[in-house]
Specification:
The protein has 19 helices and eleven strands. It folds into three domains: about 70 residues; about 170 residues, Rossmann fold (3-Layer(aba) Sandwich); about 190 residues, no CATH class. It has about 450 residues and is of the alpha/beta class. The strands form three sheets. It has a six-stranded mixed beta sheet, sandwiched between helices. The chain has a three-stranded antiparallel beta sheet with strand order 2-4-5, with no helix packed on it. Strands 1-3 form a two-stranded antiparallel ribbon. It is elongated and about 110 Å long. Helix 5 crosses helix 16 and helix 10 packs across helix 15.
Length: about 450
């Protein structure tokens, strides 16, 4: 309501002379305009039927054409940004409920991300294309279990002053099924940039009360009466705490243009290294050291495990084939490795072109990940030379398995949100690794490998 509508009939195809226009609203007999355009401002919510009647003279005969256009006027507007895990059918039910209550619920639902760690890019693309959806909204609802949507919203609004300025009188509502306190801790950084009236973190049960109540204050009262959990962040409750060094650093990075995806990958690296150290020291899995599987695990997170695995196997196979072809040349080691990396880079370019042709979209920083992965071919070839092809294949197989297990663990969204909220937790990996460094017992694999010897010792 209160938004002026301009109705234009200039694109109508009209024959004859003495053309006359008449615009009518609902069942009124008096036209609101008799020109090619009509201007109207709705003053109350509901359906508005605009009737356009055009009259002209064709062969001295008066001909009239008529059409009806329906406009729905709402008294409130709410923008709902939903995660890809929320079914479209459920969102449509909420839209219909809002429509019945006279509320315009604008739903923004991105397509399913090819890689969960890259969902911020999906939200950023969607919100950049739908900037106009936020004009006139009294509140913005983010239905997601992490901060990907809020991060994308911050980056889009920060670059557009016309969107950022009205946010001071608007509220942001975060709908989550996870810990409210954890999400509130990570939302303090975006709050300091967006500076909304308040950020309300609550449960999905609060969506209907939000739609049905007329003000945010009434909504909070209704949520409290219905015993719906919620947490409010405003100027009185938000502030960066300097004594939490890592938390302050993470908040500073995310509020100054660093993507949450990048921060998460950096925070997950110590966890990945600790998991791999456990596999090597306690379980006894053989890998290409600790650096190689860590890089592989990060590449699986960044690219998606199946695309990362495909590229890794392709890199190793190409490097092995090139080295086999160069045996007769008797080249020195360093130039030989340079040739292998060159051929691998060229073949990766071909593989990327094939992926683009079939519609496989990869992140912009893919090339750096692939170039780092290409150096792993050298480790495989060195092990093959020292211990033989069979040992090298087993080593690369165990490295891939260990990397996939790491990805399976660190891809857990609850863990990512927790680490992003409490980055100080990664310091616990130092203690865990200190205990692993004191490990002197047999590895689990060795119990199986030396089972006959152990059985003989027990009998003696």
């Amino acid at each position: 309501m209160g938004r002026t509508l301009v109705l234009d009939a200039s694109t109508s195809l009209i024959q004859g002379d003495d053309v006359r226009y008449a615009w009518f609203v609902n069942n009124s007999e008096k036209p609101i305009s008799t020109t090619v355009e009509a201007i109207y401002t709705p003053e109350e919510p509901g359906n508005i039927f605009f009737t356009l009647r055009i009259t002209s003279i064709v062969d001295k005969e008066e001909i009239t054409a008529e059409t009806v256009y329906l406009v729905r006027a709402f008294d409130r507007k709410i923008v709902l940004i939903a995660d890809t895990s929320i079914p479209s059918e459920k969102l449509e039910l909420h839209r219909q409920s809002a429509d019945d209550a006279g509320v315009f619920l604008r739903i923004l639902h991105p397509p399913a991300a090819t890689n969960p760690i890259r969902t911020t890019d999906e939200f950023l693309t969607l919100l950049s294309d739908e900037k106009n959806a936020f004009i006139g909204a009294e509140s913005v609802v983010l239905w997601t279990d992490n901060l990907t949507a809020l991060q994308a919203l911050m980056r889009v609004f920060e670059a557009d002053e016309e969107l950022l300025a009205p946010l001071e009188k608007q509220s942001i509502i975060l709908i989550t099924s996870r810990s409210l306190q954890t999400l509130a801790r990570t939302a303090t950084g975006p709050f300091s940039v967006l500076k909304p009236q308040q950020i309300i973190i609550t449960r999905k049960e609060a969506i209907n009360p939000l739609i049905l109540t007329e003000t945010i204050a009434t909504f909070l009262q209704e949520a409290e009466q219905r015993d719906i959990d919620f947490l409010v962040l405003d100027k009185t409750t938000v502030g960066l705490r300097p004594w939490n060094a890592l938390s302050t650093l993470v908040n500073y990075m995310m509020t100054h243009g660093v993507s949450s995806d990048t921060v998460i990958l950096l925070l997950l690296l110590p966890i990945i290294a600790t998991i791999l150290a456990f596999f090597k020291q306690v379980v006894g899995i053989t890998t290409f050291g600790l650096f190689a599987p860590s890089i592989i695990a990060l590449s699986f997170l960044a690219l998606g495990w199946w695309i990362g695995l495909l590229f890794l196997l392709f890199i190793i196979a190409t490097g092995y084939a090139v080295r086999t072809c160069m045996r007769r040349w008797r080249l020195l080691y360093i130039p030989k490795v340079a040739i292998i990396i060159t051929v691998v880079s060229l073949t990766l370019l071909v593989l990327l072109s094939i992926g683009t042709f079939f519609g496989v979209r990869l992140p912009r920083d893919t090339i750096f990940i692939l170039l780092i992965m290409s150096t792993l071919a050298e480790s495989f070839l060195n092990l093959k030379t020292e211990q033989g092809f069979r040992s090298a294949v087993f080593a690369i197989g165990e490295t891939i398995i260990a990397s996939l297990l790491c990805v399976l663990i660190v891809q857990w969204q609850a863990l990512q949100v927790l680490i992003l909220a409490y980055p100080e937790l990664i310091l616990l990996t130092l203690i865990i690794n200190a205990f692993l460094g004191k490990w002197t017992g047999l590895r689990l694999v060795e119990y199986f490998r030396f089972r006959e010897v152990l059985h003989t010792l027990q009998e003696e």
